[in-house]
C-alpha cells in the first residue's frame, strides 16, 4: 500500500485466517487483507469458490464445525505461513424463515454447530497461537443485526448469532492482557448469496438508505479492526447496516410483517414513495 493514508492499514508480516472465504463477505475480506499485505489463509467448505481467490492466498477446504479438522488446519497454516495474528471468522449458514411450530431440530443443530461452535473452534485455535507468540492479535467474529432485533421466523440463526456476541465479551476480557482484541461485526442486509432468493425490492423499500450493503463495505471495517488504528477497541459489537439498527416505526414493523403478508412491500412502497 502506498500513499493517501492507506499505510495505517498495512498488514505486511501478519498472518490472517479468514473463514467463509469462498463467498460474500469472507471472500471480500480475504482479498482485502491480502491487498493490505497480509499472508492470508482462506478456509471454506466450498473448494470451487476458494479456487477463484487467485494466486498468493493459501486455501483450505474444510468444515469449520469439525473441531479436529479445524485444529489440523491451524497447524497447517502455521507450518506454511506462520502463527495467526488475525482471525476473521465469517463462515455461517442461514436456513430461511421458519415458524417455531414447524421447527426442524436437525436444522437448529446444524445452524448452532456451524455458526456458533465452528466459530468458537476457530477462535480457540487462533487465540492459542496468538497467546503463545505474545505479539497480540485481532479476532473478528460475525454476528448479524438479527441478534439485536426480533425477526419473526428467524429463531435458531438469531440465537446462534446472539451467542457469538455473548462469547465476545469474556473473550475480550481474557485476551486484552495479551493485546488481542476481540470484536463482533453485526451486518444488516448485505448483497451475498446468503440472501438467496430474498426479495431485494423489499430491502430497497424498507431500509433507511434504501439499499443493501456490499461485501467490500464489510471488508473495509474488518481491515480497520485488523489495523493498529483500532488497538483500543475490544469487546465491541459494531453494526454495519446503513442505519437499520437505529430505526423504528413502519420500517421495523415491515421487517417482521413482510414474511406474513406478501403485498406489504408493494403497498408500503406506494404509500411511502410513489406519490412523491
Ligand atoms: N448477507 C447478509 O445479509 C448477512 C447479514 C448479517 C450477517 N451475515 C453474516 O455474514 C457472514 C458472511 O456471510 P455472507 O453474507 O458472506 O454469506 P455467504 O453465504 O456468501 O458466505 C458464507 C460462506 O460460509 C461458508 N460455510 C458455510 N458453512 C461452512 C462450514 N461449515 N465450514 C466452512 N465454510 C462454511 C459457505 O460455503 C460460504 O462460502 C455470516 O456469518 C453471516 O451469518 C450475513
How would you sum up this structure, described in words?
- This protein has 276 residues and is an alpha/beta fold.
- It has a single domain (6-246), classed as 3-Layer(aba) Sandwich (Rossmann fold).
- The chain contains nine helices and seven strands; from the N terminus they run βαβαβαβαβαβααβαα.
- Strands 3-2-1-4-5-6-7 form a seven-stranded parallel beta sheet, sandwiched between helices.
- β1 (15-19), α1 (24-35) and β2 form a beta-alpha-beta unit.
- The structure holds nicotinamide-adenine-dinucleotide.
- The site of nicotinamide-adenine-dinucleotide has 29 residues, from α1 and α4.
- Nicotinamide-adenine-dinucleotide is lined by residues 19-20, 22-26, 44-46, 49, 63-65, 90-93, 114, 118, 142, 144, 187, 189-190, 192-195.
CATH class: Alpha Beta
Q: Low-confidence segments, ≥5 residues, pLDDT <50?
A: none
Q: Would you count the extended β strands for me? A: 7
Task: Assign the structural class, choosing from mainly alpha, mainly beta, alpha/beta, alpha+beta, or little secondary structure.
Answer: alpha/beta
Q: Total helix count?
A: 9
Kindly give the count of domains.
1
Residue share in helix: 40-55%
Biggest beta sheet attributes: 7 strands, parallel
Please identify which CATH superfamily we are dealing with: NAD(P)-binding Rossmann-like Domain
Strand content: 5-15%
